[in-house]
Fold:
Amino acid sequence: MSASAATGAAEAPLRVAFFSDAFPERNGTGAYYHDLLPQLAPGLAGLAMFQPSDQPPRPLLSIAMPGDPNQRLEGPPLRRISRRMGELRPDVVVVVTPGLYGLLGAWYARRRGLPLVAAFHTDFERLARLYWPPLARWLVNAVVGTANRLICRRASRVLINNAGLTDAVRAYGATRVQVVGTPLPGEFLERPRRAIPGRLARVCFAGRLAPEKNVDLVIEAAKTLPAVEFVIGGEGPLRETLEKQAAGLGNVHFTGWLDRSALIDLIDSSSLLLLPSRFETFGSIALEAMVRGRPALVSTAAGIHDWPSLRPGLVPFTPGESLADCLRSLQAYGPGRWEQLERRCHAAAVALNAATTAEWHSLIESVAGNDYGETA
Structure:
């Protein structure tokens, strides 16, 4: 492509196809693009997301993932996707998972000679160590690793949301790596906020009730701090186990799965969000809490700590520390300190969301214009 043609391609409104194996809003990856695409759309000529759906007709292939039947691997509807891709005529293909949808997107990009962008959101090999016995773990890692290598080697750009993932994607063959931010849901940005309580009386956890989330630490802290209310929102394979651990504790409440509106209500009624995970690629729920003006106590194993602009709203928690002791230190804060945290949290989260949307537009334009310079 000539320099003038490349410039023209970058300047013209572009059309982008996204491929993801994650259900919308079902997990962090699904939520990321559910939040991002409406903010990208006004600056593009067209976009489409191809991903599994709960709507009929159901796919012929649908397999529950081990350890969590709410997560499924599904086969893409090839004819429907082919027809929609023919209508869209994308300039760029973005693949965000190494499953069947992601591989289809990579194949389509190669077949049509289109630039391919890959996003690496989940370290499946680390998750496999939590969920599967050795033989199954080897098989899962072999399959997922092969898919990741295929996608990363063919991608014009591989995106990560914390710099700590750089070595992992380079090991898969990525040569051009870019760190990008995380978007926020429109409702979290637009809905009027409630003032933060002036003391630490209610805290919340929201997310999958799964081994990597360390929710048992929340219950242990509740045993030590009976005057603080602990609300646990979400579903997952450990819910029954956690409810048994919390039996008899009057200050622990489980809400089950929450839609976005109910999640905002939960955050707004709390002084603090808890995310004591063993690891988090980013930790989007902490950013969502911040835009509502709530600080987040987040494990130092979460990638969100790699973003200096967000640190004013984060309380670092080192796995192995006492969660109860961390909360006791926050109980000493007066109303003025909480109000200061509220302002800082909101401003930092809004700024990152705006920068993330602008960065996505820029990288799509540069990839479409064959600007393949290495960025990380």
